[in-house]
């Protein structure tokens, strides 16, 4: 018999939070924690950011939802902001990252059919994470999360991440391919950062083959890597880009942006969402986008990422327990030489919230873009000490 009324899909740490402010979370016993995870890259502006709080309380008192059967002016404003800052042409709004990717997958298939491809296939990567719905789970490159859910959705071809030659080989042998779906940095896999020109090379291959380049920026978007979208480091434009997490600072929203021929594929009746892009979610996201731009938070993410990683390198280099410290903006990884999953629990006890991913070997830090220098230094000092003690105890 079930022991709790919550379905048992998560192993949770034994802490519950009552409220938050900026980088800090306060538990129900009054203890405070430095949040270096931001609810998994969601609360990029920290907790209870006044601009977001103001936007959603104001909007909630006026209008929360009307459905997409009518014009939604806030949705139009948000779409205009997002297309202007991304270089894309239009947007479909859903409520999560998985839904944004579902929209992209459906778009790619329909694009394929329009090109006369009866069995369109999408290239996806080993180690990828795209969500938990059936199609996005099937696109995800991690067998462990797929087991027991077969039959998976077909139409995906798997290639190693950061391997352009593998994609060229697929291109030469598979006339059914219509798109590539790829994360600019693999987040769940352990902050895997590809070669600097990886996206540029994928862009070229897509151009040569008339494929759509579809970037999953659910985690990398919204300023996290030091540009609003990670592809902006490469000076290219994708055909489709999806985002979610940091877009609503905790209010659920997902977006699938498209450009050029990809922007024409979905037409009335081909896709939809009851809630997607409702006034409340769009008010929150507009406040987020405004704040990221007005407060120069992309630039701040770059500076803060450097400060934090320089600090870790100073304190942890030479430790034979630490294999590598790497980052792009505020996607920060401390890769260990062996599994260290307990570090999530131990750091919680020390008042730091983080997450261990990449098979238990990568300490993943996704701090808010609004973190102060003092908080960053506290994070570096506390966590470095903890890792040193843990490494010493461990052997
Ligand atoms: C979190 C994540 C998703 C899934 O987003 P949900 O909102 O949980 O559905 C998809 N892709 C990437 C890259 C993610 O990090």
TrEMBL record:
Gene Ontology cellular-component terms listed: cytoplasm
Pathway this chain belongs to: Amino-acid biosynthesis; L-arginine biosynthesis; N(2)-acetyl-L-ornithine from L-glutamate: step 4/4
Record's cofactor remark: Binds 1 pyridoxal phosphate per subunit.
GO annotation terms (biological process): L-arginine biosynthetic process
Any single Pfam family the record assigns to this protein: Aminotran_3
Modified residues (N6-(pyridoxal phosphate)lysine): 245
UniProt-listed InterPro entries: AcOrn/SuccOrn_fam, Aminotrans_3, Aminotrans_3_PPA_site, Class-III_PLP-dep_AT, PyrdxlP-dep_Trfase, PyrdxlP-dep_Trfase_major, PyrdxlP-dep_Trfase_small
Record keywords: Amino-acid biosynthesis, Aminotransferase, Arginine biosynthesis, Cytoplasm, Pyridoxal phosphate, Transferase
Residues that coordinate or bind pyridoxal 5'-phosphate: 97-98, 129, 216-219, 274
Signal peptide bounds: none
Binding-site positions, N(2)-acetyl-L-ornithine: 132, 273
Cofactor(s) needed by this chain: pyridoxal 5'-phosphate
GO function terms (MF aspect): identical protein binding; N2-acetyl-L-ornithine:2-oxoglutarate 5-aminotransferase activity; pyridoxal phosphate binding
EC number(s) on file: 2.6.1.11
Keyword Amino-acid biosynthesis among record annotations: yes
Reactions catalysed, as given in the entry: N(2)-acetyl-L-ornithine + 2-oxoglutarate = N-acetyl-L-glutamate 5-semialdehyde + L-glutamate
HAMAP family: ArgD_aminotrans_3
UniProt subunit comment: Homodimer.
Anything else known: May also have succinyldiaminopimelate aminotransferase activity, thus carrying out the corresponding step in lysine biosynthesis.
Family indicated by similarity: Belongs to the class-III pyridoxal-phosphate-dependent aminotransferase family. ArgD subfamily.
Classification via PANTHER family: ACETYLORNITHINE AMINOTRANSFERASE, MITOCHONDRIAL, AMINOTRANSFERASE CLASS III
Protein name as catalogued: Acetylornithine aminotransferase
Lineage: Bacteria, Pseudomonadati, Pseudomonadota, Gammaproteobacteria, Oceanospirillales
């Amino acid at each position: 018999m079930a022991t709790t009324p919550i379905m048992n899909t998560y192993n949770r740490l034994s802490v519950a939070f009552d409220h938050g402010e900026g980088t800090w979370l306060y538990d129900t016993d009054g203890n405070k924690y430095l949040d270096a995870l931001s609810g998994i890259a969601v609360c990029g502006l920290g907790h209870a950011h006044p601009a977001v709080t103001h936007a959603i309380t104001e909007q909630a008192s006026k209008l929360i939802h009307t459905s997409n059967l009518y014009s939604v002016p806030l949705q139009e404003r948000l779409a205009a902001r997002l297309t202007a800052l991304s270089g894309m042409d239009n947007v479909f709004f859903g409520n999560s990252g998985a839904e944004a990717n579902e929209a992209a997958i459906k778009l790619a298939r329909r694009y394929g059919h329009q090109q006369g491809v009866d069995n369109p296939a999408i290239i996806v990567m080993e180690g990828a994470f795209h969500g938990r719905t059936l199609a996005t789970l099937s696109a995800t490159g991690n067998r462990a999360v797929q087991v027991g859910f077969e039959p998976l959705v077909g139409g995906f071809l798997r290639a190693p991440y950061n391997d352009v030659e593998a994609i060229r080989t697929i291109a030469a042998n598979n006339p059914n391919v219509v798109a590539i779906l790829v994360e600019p940095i693999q987040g769940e896999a352990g902050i895997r950062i590809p070669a600097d020109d990886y996206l540029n090379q994928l862009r070229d291959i897509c151009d040569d083959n008339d494929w759509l380049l579809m970037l999953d920026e659910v985690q990398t978007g919204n300023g996290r890597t030091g540009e609003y979208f990670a592809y902006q480091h490469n000076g290219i434009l994708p055909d489709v880009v999806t985002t979610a997490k940091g877009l609503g600072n905790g209010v659920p929203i997902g977006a699938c942006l498209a450009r050029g021929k990809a922007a024409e594929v979905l037409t009335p009746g081909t896709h939809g969402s009851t809630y997607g892009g409702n006034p409340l979610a769009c008010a929150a996201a507009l406040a987020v986008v405004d704040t990221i731009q007005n407060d120069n938070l992309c630039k701040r993410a770059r500076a803060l990422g450097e400060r934090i990683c320089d600090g870790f390198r100073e304190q942890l280099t030479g430790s034979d327990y630490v294999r590598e410290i790497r980052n792009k903006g505020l996607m920060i990884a401390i890769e260990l030489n062996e599994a260290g999953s307990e570090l999530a629990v131990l750091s919680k006890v020390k008042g730091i919230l983080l997450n261990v991913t990449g098979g238990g070997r990568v300490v993943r830090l996704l701090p808010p873009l609004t973190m102060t220098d003092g908080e960053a230094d506290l994070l570096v000092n506390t966590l470095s000490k903890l890792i040193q003690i843990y490494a010493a105890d461990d052997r």
